[in-house]
Structures are given as C-alpha cells and as structure tokens.
Design a protein that fits this description.
The complex is a heterohexamer, with 3 copies of chain A (324 residues) and 3 copies of chain B (102 residues).
Chain A: H1 2-12, H2 15-28, H3 37-62, H4 66-92, H5 98-109, H6 113-126, H7 134-142, H8 144-153, H9 160-172, H10 175-202, H11 204-227, H12 233-256, H13 261-272, H14 278-286, H15 292-323
Helix pairs in contact in A: 1-15, 2-11, 3-10, 3-11, 4-5, 4-7, 4-8, 4-12, 4-13, 5-8, 5-15, 6-13, 6-15, 7-10, 9-14, 11-15, 12-13, 12-15, 13-15
Chain B: E1 4-14, H1 18-27, E2 33-43, E3 46-49, E4 59-66, H2 68-84, E5 87-96
Antiparallel strand pairs in B: 1-4, 1-5, 2-3, 2-4
The chains are: A mainly alpha (324), B alpha+beta (102).
Bound molecules: adenosine monophosphate (AMP) (3 copies) and sodium ion (3 copies).
Chain lengths: 324, 102, 324, 102, 102, 324
C-alpha cells in the first residue's frame, strides 16, 4: 500500500505533528524549553471546548441517527472490555502486580482526546465522512474502563467503602467529560447561529493551538521516557502492540454492530488510544498503590507518540481495507 | 511579645486526594489551614513534576497551626491514610499570638 | 412583549451565555472542571484590552460629542448615589452590619466589564446604535462608588490615616481601570490604522475568549453559591431587586440629563451590574472587616447570573419602552 | 556543621495588603524574606480559593529568617495589624549558617 | 501518637541552579524532598519578583525531611555552594511518623 | 530627514508599541496592573513559534542562498565581538566590577527576539525585502556572546570545572534557541502546505499577541527602573549609546562581508538589541556574582524601550543612507 505510506508521510509532516516531534527531541536532549502548567491546562480546555462544539454543530446538521447509536454502543462496549484483555496481557506477559496492571488497563480502555483530534484532522484531509456525533462517543468512552479496572483490581482498591460513592461522582463529573459533553450540547443547540459566532475561534485557530499543545506533549512524553525507572522490554512491547489489538477488536465489533466504515475508522483510532488526562487522576484516588511511573510512561511516553506518528494512518488503512 | 506554644502540621499529599485530608483536619477539630502547590519533588517512588497534562502526581502542602491535641489526633488518622496514599507529614513547635484561634 | 421574550431566548442561546450556564452547572454538581487562575486573569486582561480598544476606535470614528459628556456625567452620578440606596436597603431590610453593608453597596455602585461586554453584544445584535465612548463611561463608573462606601462605613474603615493616601492611589490606578482607559486611548489615537492591525484579535476572536471566560465565571459563581454560609432570604432578594432599582434610577437620570436612548440602554445595564474584580480588592484593603462571603456571593453568585440570563434583555426592553 | 540559632517568621496575609506587612518587616529590621502564593485555605471566616477573577481573598505566605529581637518587634506590630486584617503568624527556632546575614 | 525526631531542611535557591542543589541532596543521602516556587522576595541584593520574562531571578524553596546526619552533610556542602550562589538555608527539629523513610 | 521622522512617528503609533508605552506608564505610576507569569511565558513561546515558523516558510520560498551565509557569518562575528567593546566601555567609563561588566556585555552581544519582531514589522511596513532566513540568524546570534563573556570574566566564573560541561549544554539547548530553530525548520519543511494550516495563528493573530506581550514588557521594564538601586549616569549613558555603537559595527561589517542592504537593516537592529530572556538565566548560573540589578535594568529597562521607540526607525534610516 504505497499510497497509504505516502499519506502517512503526509500526516507526519503536518506542523502540529512536527511540533510534537520537536518537543520530544528537545525533551530528550534535556533542553529547558517548557510550557507553563497553567498554559497546558488552558490549551487542553480550549481543545475540548472546540472539539465538542464543532462536533455538536455537525451533529445538529445531520441529526442524531441510528449511526450514532451503533457507534456509541460499540465504543462503550470496547471501553468495558479492552481493559480485560490489557489486564491479562500485563499480568501474564509483563508480570505486573495486580494493582498496577488494573490501573494501566484502565488507561488503554479509555481514550485520548488529542489522539482523536489528530486522527480526525487526518481523516478530514482524506475526505472520510465520519459523523459529528463521534465527539459524543469520545465522551462515552472516557469512563467505563475505570469501572472495569476497579473490578479487576479487586480488594486492592483504596479507601474502602466511604470513598466509593465519592469516586463514582468524581469520575462521572470529571472535568474533561463535562466540558466535552457540555460543548457538544451547546454546539448542537446553537447550530449554525452559534458557529457564526465561534467560527474563527474553533476552526482556523485550532491547528495553531494544537501545535503548541503537542509541543508540550512532546516535552512531557520525553521526560516520562527519560525518568522511566521501571520500564521492561515486555512493557514497551505491550505499549506498542496493545493499540493494534484494540484496533482489531474495534474493527471486529464495528463490523458486528453495523457501524458505518467512516465511523469505524474513528472508533479504531479511539480504541487504540490511551488516556493520560482523566484516568490517571482517577487512579491516584482509587488505586494509589499502582505505579504511575508505569501507566503514564506507557500511555504518554510510548503509545501516544506511536499512535500520532504511525498508528493513525495505519488504522485508517486497515479499516479501509477490511470494512471498505 | 507574649506568645503561646502551639503545633504546626506540614502535610504533603497528592492533589487528587487533598480534599480527603482536609476532611480529616476538619473532623479532628483543626480550625484553620492554608494550602500551597508544589512544582516538583523526589521520593521513594521517583521524581514528579507539575506539568498540566495529567496533573495526577501533583503535590500539595497543607500548613496548619493547631493545638497539641488536635495535631495528635490528626497524626493518628494520617497513619492509616498514608498506608493507602503517598505523602509525608511532620509536626513542630511554634509560638503564636492569639492562641484562642488555634 | 412577546418579541422581547423571543429576543431574551435568543440572548440565552448565544454560545457565550450557554458556556456560563455550563460552568454554573458543572460547579453546582462539584465537577473538578477548573480554569487555571493565571488563564482567568489573562482572559480578563484580553477582554478589557479588546473592549477598550474597540470603543476607542469607534469613538475616533464619531468624535467626542456632547452625547459622551451626558452619558459620562450620568454614569458618574449613578456610581456615587447607587451605593447610598443599596446601603440603606442592606441596613434596614437585610440587617447587615454597617461595614459589610457599605462594602456591598460599593460593589453595586461600580460596574461589571463582562456584563457590559455581554450587554453590548446583545444591543449590537439588535442594532441599537450606542456610542463607542460608552467604554470610557465604564471606566468612569468603576471607582466613585468606592468613595461613597468609605463615607458610609465611617469610622470602621481600616488602617486609619496613613493608608488613606495609598488607598486612593491604588483605587485610581487599579489595573482594570488603567487597561480599559489606556486601550481606549490607544484605539482612539490609532483609529482605522490600528484596527487594521488588531482587527482579528479584538473582533472575531472576542466571542470565543468570552465563552471561555464565562465558563470560568460560571464555575466561580457556583462555588460562591455552594460555599455561601451567611446567605439569608433578604440578601438574596436584595441581589435580585437591586439591579432593577439601579436600572430605574439610571433611566430616570438619563431622561433628566438628556442621554440619548441607545446610550441609556447601555447605562441601564451598567447601573444594574455589580463589580467583582476591582471593588473586592479595594474592600479587602479599606474595609477588611466586611464579609467577602456576603459581597462576592451577592455580586458574583446572584446578580451577575441574573443580569446575564434575564436582566440584559429586560433592561433593554424597558429602556426602549420608556425612552423610545 | 557550625550553626547558630535564629528565628523563623511565617506570616499568612491577604494579597491586597501584602505590601503593608512587608513595610513592617523592613521597618523592624528584617533583612530578607521570601513570599509564596497559597492556592486555598480554611479559617474562621470560611473557605477561600485562588480563582483569578477577584483575587481579593488570595493569601500569601511570608517566610523570613531573622534575629530574635527583630522577630519580637515584628510580632508586636502585627498584633495591631491583625486587629484590622485577617491572617495568622507563627515563629519558631531554626539553625542557620552565616548568622550575620539575619 | 508515636513520633520520632528528625530534621527539616528549608533551602531557598535561584531557579537556574535548583538542579545543582538537588544533586547535593541526592549525593548526601536525602531520600525525599519537595519544591515550591516563590513569587517575590527581598534580600541583601535587592527585591525580586517572578515575572515570566527573564525568570533569571526566580527563587525556589526546597523542603526536605531527613536524618540529622544527612542534614549536617548537606549543610557542609551548602556552605561552599552559597559562597558562589545566592540563597539561604535553615534547619529545624520536627516530629515525624514512619521514621525509617527519612 | 523629515520622512524618516514621520516614519518614526508612524512606528511609535502602532498599537503594539503604544501598549508598551501603556505598560511603562502604568508601571511607573505603580498601578497594580499585571500579566500573570505563566501568560508572559506562554506569549513568549507563541512569539518564538510564530516568528520561527514564518521565517522558515519564507526561507522555503526563496531557498537558502549565499545571502543567508553572509548575514549569518556577520551576525555570529558581531555576537562574538560586541561584548568585548561593551566590556571595556563598562570597565573604563562606568567603572563596573569585572564580573558584572562581563555579564552585562553578554546581554549586549546577544539579541532580543521581541526587538526583532517589532523591527521586522517596521521594515515590512516600509517594504524592505529582507530574507526569511534572518530568523535563523537571530538564533545564531543568541549564544556566542555568552562564551565571550565567560572569557572576559576569567577566574570569576562560578562552579569551576564540573559546571562547564553542563553550562555549555544548557546554553546551546536553551529553550528559546531550540523553539526558534525548531519552528524555523518546521516552517521550512512544511512550506506553503504548513502555512495553509497555521496562517491565521501566526499571521493576523501575531499583532494582538505582540500587543499584550509588550504591555507586560512595559510593566516589567518600569519595575526594573523603579527598583534600580545601582544605576549611575555612566551606566544609563552606556545603555543609550551602546546600541548605536553596535549598529555602527554591524553596518561596517555588513559592508565588508557583502550583506545585502535589506538584511543589513535587520542585522543592525539585532546588533543594537540586548537579550533579556536567554542570557540572564545563563548568567545566574555562570556568573552568579554579577549584579542582575545592573544587567537587567540596562537591557530591559533602558535599551529595550530605547530601541523600540527610537532605535528601530533610526537604524533603518542610517542603513538606508549608508548602504543604499
Ligand atoms: N523526606 C521528604 N521531604 C519532603 N518531601 C518528601 C519527602 N519524601 C517524599 N516527599 C514528597 O512526597 C512525594 C512522594 O514521596 P514518595 O512516596 O517517597 O515517592 C515526593 O515526590 C515528595 O514530593
Ligand atoms: N490555623 C491556621 N493555620 C494555617 N493557616 C490558617 C490558620 N487559620 C487561618 N489560616 C489562613 O488564614 C485564612 C484566614 O483565616 P480566618 O481569618 O480564620 O478565616 C484562612 O483561610 C487560612 O488560609
Ligand atoms: N532572611 C531571609 N529569610 C527568607 N528569605 C530570604 C532571607 N534572605 C534572603 N532571602 C531570599 O533569598 C533571596 C536572595 O537573598 P540575598 O542574597 O540576600 O539578596 C531574597 O530575595 C529572598 O527571596
Ligand atoms: Na483506548
Ligand atoms: Na452598578
Ligand atoms: Na546585540
């Protein structure tokens, strides 16, 4: 598939992705280049607001169809079951302790909003006509994996009874979920009229903000890699192959549940992506004995760059081949 | 200057569980405290840096002036808490004015 | 007035206002969604810069006419006398202590720049041709109320003699006043040439930044409401009715001093708005015994949402009916 | 290691009046201090959070190493100051090198 | 509550050389510390404010609980360090739980 | 040269420069107007990203010609030798101690990215056709001066042997150099295709961000001036005349090495500018005994405003007269 390869190269050469590479490079060389925390948090808020709002406006154009329900159901099921596969792989192959394996599995069952952003930019450039409602699917896929992980961790979950109620509230009302869903609803409600007001803010500005944000993600990923103390070959292999397994599971389930091919391409990218914003905070609360040096290094340091640089065009090509 | 001896608690906890420690302080009768944000640190479990992406490893410092008794009760509770969660705590003697506040 | 109602609904449905509602909602449900402080401060600086600059350019187009002096004088007088009315209402009806009543009164005599921004967006959408110099009137109305409040507080003001001189300087050189006036002057001086350079920055970008800022204001207002300890029914009623009283006073004085109707609509919105940036800081210095749990909850937690969601279209409709 | 006993002042004040406390430190002969920003707190008058909108309730921590005498004089002045303004202060013993600096 | 006496190091250094002081802590056997960012300060060399442009004068506070011996060794090294670089350090007694950590 | 004067006035009247004046004014009057640190750092990152990227795209249009090598070589030589002249002036005329003189000299040998931004805006408005590769020259000129300064300081440099290796790495991998060069390369690699994605972000947005950043620089410069304790008349004269000397040296060397006149105008502005981001941090590490109250006050408090308000049009006029 030489065409896929040249498209992959093209994907590699967008400014946003190259700024990620610049951040990675600067971080690995220990440059003192740094994006202030407050800026990184604000850029993340902006991205979720823009992604949610755009998705809402697009959904208001098309209306909520059966396609949405197919994609949503597939996404939720994937988020519940991917952690099970990840957990057993981490336990048996990488010989990780139960708690860290469960926490890491939660990351792989959940999703990365920025991988979604980069992936949909790529699909748009290719003219793949996925639905605007896929933003809502992102939000649906953020949290189920956390519940699976808590079951997998069993008695090791912290804080016993008292905390459980709190935790559920904290997970469901997680800031990124609320902002993504809220912006989606605002986009859906205000439609074209709303877009007329926010057009410049959410559209042409988006690429630039994404570039700055990816610069920071490169720097953070590099620090994770540099400071990783507990990395082993099986763990690295897991972080590189789990996305492929998730992608395969996603394609199979999409075929089964009749997800339309364009949406299935987005789902494959989401399934392959791993969380690094919402899930880590939930894990610090629920599974504090799990080692963040493992799950953040794998999701942010290895899987995210892999997806950004190689995965996205690959998953798209496979979906196009398999599902047409 | 007329001062009175009280105790100062300094507690470092992870940001996601800050509110749980604050609940302990409140329940044990500590009547005031202030919270500060760390920028990085080093410990048994490696290094962390506040970074704005995940924020999961960010640390907070709780600074609380209180009575000897309340400090003791808080420590008692924190022993159990720190079995589950990472963090450190220390107590020291300080002189304060307006001792009835603490 | 069914038309007014449908316009009000329209106002409710702008993305910016809906993002405020989202913030309020997320905050009341205790979501961990949060905008970093540094970002909120920077967005506020941006809004003042853009508002001031746009007003200055518009003023340079029209020139400074007698209309400006009428509106400015009306605004200053309102800022001086509204606190007196507020103070006696708070003392007699809400039975507030002298110092907290005076500090709260200062907030209602001063103005909210974001209410001004939302209000003028609404008026622009309706085609109400108010003057660009109204931005300068905003700046004029920020501080007189503080002086009235200090007189009303009497001996309770802190720090005695030594601090007074400092306080006056701090109030007059308050950052938001300086930035608003400075940007207005820069807009007026550079005119169309300046606008050619900053057009995108201050115009199409504005709605998006306002949306993000209002999201944060919703979160902050919700926390105020959640943590309010000293709220009483009379205080809540005050926060809901004082804007109406101020609006009425503003309309009467506008008629008396011959303010043109379009400007009077802006003045009514300004009079009804309450400060939550400049005045609170001045009160922490001058009246530290006043309870911020009262004045910030009333101005930020009740009056601001009320004005944004209901007040603005209402005041406009009343001004249109009364002053034609 | 040769160290000398000095006093450490820790003062929590509201950001809008920080400069007034710094003026007291200077006038009483404290020769150095460092200031840190709090992120939230709890006290007799309720909770506060640094928020970026009003900033009126934001708190600062002043950390000052100084001589016993200067610390005493500062406390004397702060008694009056804290009658008007909210805040807390404590003093404790510390060991320092280069004692002539403080 | 069963506590044990340990030492608390508080070190103020300039941000550009923070990592050099951290290297000293590590080499002298300090097993954990936390870092905080100052917002302004005053000293023999004048005032500084954290400002975002040059950042050259920004200060960091290192807060480290450690054993008496490690604290002494660190002070020994810091004497030399502070001959070259600006900054202050103080040590004090604190009570901690889980003393084997420090 | 009345035309040059009217152009200078025009330069003075851009919004960005007037916002600098506003910041200076507010700061000198001790207004509490302040831009959060995190925002200032982020705006600086944005400016470097945008400047680098635009330069890279322009360079990809023109290709790397001999002109680039001439300008680059001239810039590097200037950065090495300007500190020597500055050092002897500071030692003999201003009677500064060796270490502070060396550190200050490093600032004047290095460059200011914001002066470059303002200068190139000015030249663009005049239609001076300098090369896009001049951004790369900025990066080349950032660090050589630091090496000269260390030699000039001699035995006073801190930390002895051990630190030297570290310092070199820190200086070469300085965040602003890495971001500027990296963005330049990304611009050069992605060319028009990249520009299509980031156009709005790096072009029309630029002026607005520059205005906000210069507002902050005005505030910071004012604080420097207000708190300057060790200022003497010779030091102030140095900060006002050294840029003229550097400009003259730059013109002479440009003529000698055959730099084309448009590029020579940029080089003159760069030579006259003084660093206040990268060099101060390097000096705190390498020459901690040097007094930042001297070098930051001179570069940020005096030379930067001088260049922005007077220097830029002056240097351009002189280059145009001398080199045609
Ligand atoms: N001895 C110590 N002194 C101060 N802070 C510490 C100390 N030990 C640990 N910490 C803080 O607590 C965090 C977690 O510690 P640990 O559980 O040892 O990895 C560290 O990253 C530090 O921020
Ligand atoms: N005991 C205490 N220990 C530490 N900080 C305190 C204490 N009491 C009050 N504070 C701080 O001072 C602020 C004002 O206190 P208060 O006047 O009691 O409401 C609180 O919000 C805390 O930030
Ligand atoms: N006595 C002190 N207590 C606390 N911090 C200090 C003290 N002296 C100096 N500092 C801090 O160290 C910085 C440099 O001090 P100096 O070298 O005295 O100018 C000051 O700006 C303060 O931030
Ligand atoms: Na996934
Ligand atoms: Na008002
Ligand atoms: Na230079």
């Amino acid at each position: 598939m030489p065409e896929a390869l040249s498209l992959a190269a093209n994907n590699l050469l967008t400014p946003a992705v190259l700024f990620f590479a610049l951040g990675l490079f600067a971080g690995l060389l220990r440059s003192d280049l740094a994006v202030p925390d407050a800026a990184a948090k604000t850029l993340a808020l902006y991205l979720m607001l823009a992604i949610g709002f755009k998705g809402g406006v697009e959904a208001s154009r098309a209306g909520l169809t059966a396609d949405f329900f197919n994609a949503g159901a597939t996404g939720v099921i994937l988020s519940f079951i991917i952690p099970v596969v990840a957990f057993y792989a981490l336990r048996s192959v990488a010989r990780l302790d139960r708690t860290t394996a469960a926490a890491t599995a939660a990351h792989y069952g959940s999703v990365s909003v920025v991988t979604f952003a980069a992936g949909t930019e790529y699909l748009r450039a290719l003219g793949v006509p996925f639905g605007g409602y896929m933003v809502a699917v992102v939000a649906l896929m953020e949290t189920p994996a956390i519940l699976t992980a808590l079951l997998l961790a069993g008695g090791d979950a912290a804080g016993k009874q008292g905390l459980r109620g709190n935790l559920l509230r904290e997970v469901l009302l997680n800031g990124s979920v609320v902002l993504l869903v809220g912006s989606f609803v605002i986009g859906a409600v205000t439609g074209e009229r709303g877009m007329a007001k926010l057009d410049l803010f959410v559209n042409p500005l988006f690429q630039g903000v994404l570039a700055l944000f990816l610069l920071d993600m490169g720097l953070v990923a590099a620090r994770r890699l540099r400071e990783a103390k507990t990395m082993t070959v099986p763990l690295v292999l897991f972080a590189l192959s789990m996305p492929l397994v998730s992608c395969a599971m996603s394609i199979a389930l999409s075929a089964l549940l009749g997800v339309k091919p364009a949406d299935a391409a987005v789902l494959a990218i989401l399934a392959a992506s791993a969380s690094y914003i919402a899930v880590p905070a939930a894990m610090r609360i629920a599974l504090p004995k799990a080692d963040p040096g493992v799950y953040l290094t794998l999701s942010l340091g290895i899987t995210f760059p892999f997806n950004l640089l190689i995965g996205i065009p690959l998953y798209q090509a496979v979906v196009a081949t398999v599902l047409g | 200057m007329q001062t009175v001896r009280r105790r100062k608690l300094e507690i470092i906890v992870e940001a996601p569980v800050l509110s749980r420690v604050e609940a302990i302080l409140k329940s044990e009768g500590v009547r005031g405290w202030s919270v500060f944000a760390g920028v990085e640190g080093h410990g048994a479990t490696g290094d962390w840096h506040s970074e704005g992406l995940s924020g999961a490893e960010e640390k907070r410092l709780i600074f609380a002036l209180t009575s000897n008794d309340a400090a003791d009760r808080v420590l008692e509770k924190l022993v159990a808490f720190f079995e589950d969660y990472p963090g450190v705590v220390c107590v020291s003697d300080v002189d304060v004015m307006r001792p009835d506040r603490f």
